[in-house]
Write a structure and sequence with these properties.
The chain is α+β, with helices and mostly antiparallel strands. The chain folds into 3 domains: 89 residues; 169 residues, Jelly Rolls, CATH 2.60.120; 110 residues, no CATH class. Helices cover 24% and strands 30% of the residues. The chain has 6 helices and 19 strands. The strands form 3 sheets. Strands 1, 2, 3, 4, 5, 6, 7, 8, 9, 10, 11, 12, 13 and 14 form a 14-stranded mixed sheet that branches. β10 and β11 form a beta hairpin. It is elongated, with a radius of gyration of 47 Å. The two termini are 83 Å apart. The relative contact order is 0.08.
């Protein structure tokens, strides 16, 4: 407890100044002044002339000073009490659980892919809020016939990352996938049916992957720039690889590690089994679909004219030097017995040719650790029958990439006659 009294300054609560002054004699100062005046003027003031007023004034001043000291101590005590009260209040507030700030509303994940042409309506079943665009977590089902989807790219250099078809593949309940991931790598969890994809290659990482789950675990088929088909029947996985390279292994956040397989290849294994248990064969590879035809609602079983069904666009399959774009030579026209021709519009042809060039660059590039950026313009001349008459790159590409791209371009059939240019930009 704080003592707010001072013995030296203690005064009665009520002071009768008149009574005190009546009992008190003249003050020393009054007597001194009176003596001085009597010596000079001979005048002695009557008792109480000035002394009474002076004593009242001095006593009042002493009283105010004492009260001021008492007030300061009281204020100090009050200040200490107030500080303690504030500290206690702060401790109480800090001890209480602080309500968490309202978390911002989650924003929708970026669009993972969209429907590309083909029949929709009852053929497509999804829990997506937007039946034309899908995000991570959405489920997609296709019944009766395949439906094509597209993962768009960025800018003119990469018009799309992947185009793929979801195929019921004879499943009575239809095909079903769930969008497992939609960042740099689009990952589809295949639950029923089959997925056939044409993927634009990337220098690092993976653009596309399919996860298939079974009692023994989950197997990931990761695409490193390729054309492939992944089908699920019960716990059995069947992969038909017609172009490029895939990696089979366990799902991971980074690049899939496991067993790498090069086209052409037919692969069979149980979901969740070790990649080393996969049975791989170069025979019996299913013919690749023309996904542009599927997107237009036409028959998908139309291999590209001029390309063997299981040929890979690797350097070992490159066309002879006479097909180099700079020479502008003309390949032989397909015979009348060839498969029906799929005519591409100019817009579809530009996209397909850009993908072809990127695929060729990824497949022939060496693993030197040096990144090379290339920009060029491809000029394509098309005859009236839709066959490609000539192709020219300005500036030219490296011979292996240019030969591979020329082979792919001459195999295309485009609505003609016409000439058009295609901007090409890629890294390898």
């Amino acid at each position: 407890m704080i003592d707010d009294t001072d013995d030296d300054d203690e005064l009665p609560e009520d002071i009768d100044l008149d009574a005190e002054l009546a009992n008190a004699g003249p003050s020393p100062l009054t007597r001194l002044l009176a003596e001085a005046k009597s010596e000079t003027t001979g005048y002695v003031p009557p008792a109480g002339d000035f002394s009474l007023a002076e004593q009242k004034l001095l006593l009042r001043l002493e009283t105010e000073i004492a009260r001021e000291k008492r007030s300061r101590k009281s204020q100090l005590a009050a200040g200490v009490v107030a500080s303690l009260a504030l500290a206690a209040g702060a401790a109480f507030l800090l001890g209480r659980p602080v309500a968490p700030e309202a978390s911002p509303m989650p924003t929708a994940a970026p669009i993972a892919f969209t429907v590309k042409g083909g029949p929709k309506g009852g053929n497509l079943r999804t829990d997506s809020e937007d039946p034309e665009g899908f995000v991570v977590g959405d489920t997609v089902e296709v019944a009766d016939q395949p439906l094509v989807f597209e993962r768009r790219g960025v800018g003119k250099g990469t018009p799309r990352r992947a185009m793929w078809a979801l195929d019921p593949a004879g499943e009575a309940a239809g095909a079903r996938i769930k969008v497992a991931k939609g960042g740099e790598t689009l990952v589809l969890a295949l639950e029923r049916g089959a997925v056939e994809a044409d993927v634009t290659p990337v220098r690092d990482g993976e653009a596309f992957a399919v996860d298939v789950a079974g009692p023994a675990g989950t197997t990931r088929v990761a695409v490193h720039g390729t054309h492939l088909r992944v089908a699920k029947q019960g716990n059995k996985i069947t992969v038909d690889l017609t172009e490029g390279v895939i990696a089979i292994g366990a799902p991971s956040d980074g690049r899939t590690t496991g067993r790498e397989i090069v086209a052409p290849a037919h692969v069979e294994l149980e979901a969740g089994a070790s990649p080393s248990a996969a049975v791989v064969s170069n025979a019996g590879v299913r013919a690749a679909w023309v996904l542009e035809a599927v997107a237009d609602g036409r028959s998908p079983s139309l291999p590209l004219p001029g390309i063997p069904p299981h040929a890979s666009a690797s350097p070992s399959h490159a066309v002879p030097s006479k097909h180099v774009a700079a020479q502008g030579s003309t390949p032989a026209t397909p015979s009348a017995s060839a498969a029906p021709i799929v005519m591409l519009s100019e817009g579809a042809a530009k996209t397909a040719l850009q993908v072809d060039v990127k695929r060729c660059a990824a497949q022939v590039a060496g693993k030197t650790g040096v990144k090379i950026s290339v920009e060029s313009t491809l000029t394509v001349d098309v005859r009236a029958d839709g066959s490609v008459a000539s192709t020219r790159f300005d500036p030219p590409l490296s011979p292996p990439i240019q030969e591979c791209a020329a082979q792919a371009a001459f195999a295309r059939h485009i609505e003609g006659p016409r000439s058009f240019t295609v901007p090409v930009k890629f890294d390898y």
